[in-house]
Design a protein that fits this description.
single chain, 383 residues, alpha/beta, OB fold (Dihydrolipoamide Acetyltransferase, E2P), Rossmann fold, six-stranded mixed sheet, five-stranded antiparallel sheet, 47% helix
């Protein structure tokens, strides 16, 4: 066995150290080269012109008509490796000559669920007071066709596609719509009419289309359009782009109403406080042709609503609901509910668990004053 002297051992250590350092340096160089390549690729991506998202309007053989975001339409070519296209698809196009590069997998332009309230209501008919006639009518128009479509086929008639609930604010229009959705176990899709009017050209119509598509996917469904007069008011000669966009959205809504079957499992309920300004095209047969007036409740209706909202309240024996209902005059259902809430607050402020007659009387006066103040503010703004 050859013995290694001290000098040779030192040389061996130095050689091993250089070898280890060389391996480390080589590994670092490899990492740096990979980093440089990634940065070069990223720089190339930054230099590439961005692609524009457009919508296919019509397919004409090897050429298609697209609509660009500003609303203009062009006849353009399609690249050879692009997937098969159809009207309504969203595509990426090259900005210089608008050649279609590829089809987007998802054609939706909106996350439509951000614009609607979608739920499964649990409101029963027993929670609605003073509207027996209206309940019977909406059951005939919406509930019966969804539950027993065979009855209409046997008789040979087509039920209305939708219904318009009209009347003063706070009378229970939304409650009626939610209750009929609950009774038919339908998805309740609520949207405010003003939400359908979008900023850019064509977006409102696109949103309407996708709301109805969502309803078909979630069927059975009830589409409830509150303040429908925001987009369905009488059409006049318009000059501004905003007014023209409202009309485009309205025309898409009419087209959607015409496009589904009366005995389908999607029903439309509109609600408005201003039936007088509604466009006749919306109210003609085949659209929202059944109109249900939801009035301010009479004395019997007020008493029924009062009993519903006080069924879980504890109050003294001298609290006569008949007399309280008489004092409420022309209160709406929403105002009667507000009276019950305010009466409860008067009791809570005095650390009581029982509501007194005086609490109801003070609550009535408070709601009257708030209503008067709101009326005066409205007159100052619009009078």
């Amino acid at each position: 066995m050859i013995k290694m002297n001290a000098k040779d051992a030192d040389v061996e250590k130095i050689i091993f150290g250089y070898s280890t350092s060389a391996n480390q340096i080589e590994e670092e160089n490899k990492i740096l080269r990979e980093t440089i390549n990634r940065l070069r690729e990223e720089i190339e991506r930054f230099k590439t012109n961005p692609l524009m998202v457009c919508e296919i309007r019509e397919v004409l053989g090897k050429e298609v008509i697209i609509r660009v975001p500003n609303g203009n339409e062009f006849l353009v070519n399609v690249s050879d490796n692009c997937d098969k296209l159809s009207a309504g698809d969203s595509v990426l196009v090259e900005q210089k000559n608008l050649t279609i590069i590829k089809r987007l997998a998802v054609s939706k332009k909106f996350n439509v669920e951000k614009f609607v309230i979608m739920e499964k209501p649990n409101i029963s008919w027993s929670q609605i007071g003073g509207l027996d006639k209206q309940i019977r009518e909406i059951q005939e128009v919406v509930e019966l066709p969804l539950k027993k479509p065979e009855l209409f086929r046997e008789i040979g008639i087509q039920p209305p596609k939708g219904v318009l609930l009209h009347g003063p604010p706070g009378t229970g229009k939304t409650l009626l719509a939610k209750a009929v959705a609950a009774s038919t176990n339908s998805t309740f899709i609520e949207i405010v009419g003003s939400e359908l009017v979008q900023k850019f050209i064509g977006e409102g119509a696109k949103l309407v289309k996708e709301v109805f598509q969502l309803a078909r996917e979630k069927a059975p469904a009830v589409i409830f359009i509150d303040e429908i007069d925001a987009i369905a008011c009488k059409r006049i000669e318009v000059g501004t782009s905003g007014e023209r966009e409202v009309q485009r959205t309205f025309m898409q809504l009419l087209a959607e109403l015409d496009g589904f079957k009366p005995l389908g499992n999607v029903k439309v309920i509109g609600a408005t406080n201003r039936k007088d300004i509604m466009d006749p095209a919306m109210l003609r047969p085949g659209r929202l042709d059944r109109m249900i007036y939801v009035p301010i409740p009479n004395k019997e209706g007020r008493l029924e609503i009062l009993r519903i909202h006080t069924k879980n309240m504890k109050f003294e024996k001298d609290v006569l609901l008949d007399a309280i209902a008489e004092r409420m005059g022309d209160f709406s259902g929403a105002e009667i509910r507000a009276v019950c809430t305010e009466a409860g607050y008067f009791a809570i402020r005095e650390n009581r668990k029982i509501v007194k007659r005086e609490d109801f009387l003070k609550a009535i006066e408070k709601v009257k004053e708030e209503e008067k103040a709101e009326g005066e503010d409205y007159m100052r703004m619009f009078g």
